[in-house]
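re the bet — no i am not wrong, look at it urself. input seq straight from the record:
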Amino acid sequence: MATAVKAAPRKPAPAKEYTFIWEGKDKTGKILRGEMRAGGEALVQATLRRQGVMVTKIKKQSFGRGGKITEKDITLFTRQLATMMKAGVPLLQAFDIVAKGSGNRGVAKLLIDIKSDVETGSSLSQAFRKYPAHFDALFCNLVAAGEQAGILDHLLDRLATYKEKILAIKSKIKSALFYPIAVVVVAIIVTAVILIFVVPEFKKVFTSFGADLPAPTLMVIALSDYFVQYWYIVAAIVGGSLYAFFFFWKRSPAMQAFLDRTFLRLPIFGDIIRKATIARWARTLSTMFAAGVPLVEALDSVGGASGNHVYKMATKQIQNEVSTGTSLTVAMQNAAVFPSMVVQMVSIGEESGQLDNMLGKVADFFEQEVDDATEALSSLMEPIIMVFLGTIIGGLVVAMYLPIFKLGQVV
């Protein structure tokens, strides 16, 4: 006779804990205050009663939904944590100080949760690994290396410096791209307003002339008629195209690879993007190698941190060759994506045993190159943008005033 198989009992889900702020008095009447993580107020009261504290007030700390946690928030937290640990502040106390001083409720909640994990026995790197959206593999690996070697404060300081430099170079790239993109968007909006609202008024005036209009004026009027009649279709196509572009850019590896290759080929911006990518690549490898992470293992994080698919695939190729005994210099030459200066600096670093130092110098050099290139680009873009705006907006205005000029000549 068949017997029923008993299902394995499910493990109970861990009880949800909250942060409570409490106030009370000890046996001598001294007022005490503090925080505690617990499943409810009753548990807080029972725990404090066992400790000889007579509770007078308990309040559940609410973080709300909190703000969005940005890379800048994580960079600032890393610098603050590194500074306090180097000053001798205990780890848990440092988390408390940073959480209370943060203006972002999301950051405060994140730090309180990490602190609770550490209090329950997790290592700091294990606690960070529970939040991969904010702490990547490189961050967690460096923290783990610092814990194992007993130099966590030193590695946190290096990690903070690394994140500050990467954040600065990203900011420079964004600022170089923001200005022309913003001007193009404004030009499109102004052009649309002129075509939809201004040109039809001119058209009403021109119909009373009873004369043939110049070809540029007829073209602008025809374009305006199309926009007035089908503006919603044009808006839907533009909006849908932008949405589809960003949707597939974030979710399609093939499109990301295509765009990364395309960006590197752009006439002016491509050189800046390439220099920024090499700077991030060298800075990441220098930081990890200086922390004592083996080269093959360090290359795992370097490719993703470079932020470009071309260099990510090249790093995988370099990693495979290095793991079979090839020197880093030869592997980088075979990848054919690094300038000869970078390869020569790496070769000197390998021969002298100062690879991390040489990679740091490479990163410094290319970061300065990005600074100079973005400044030059800003100076170059101003006259180009003025010509662009003059051609688009000025062309529309001149086309609409041509019939008035001709009428004035006839009179």
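see?? The mean pLDDT is 83. told u. also The radius of gyration is 31 Å. so pay up
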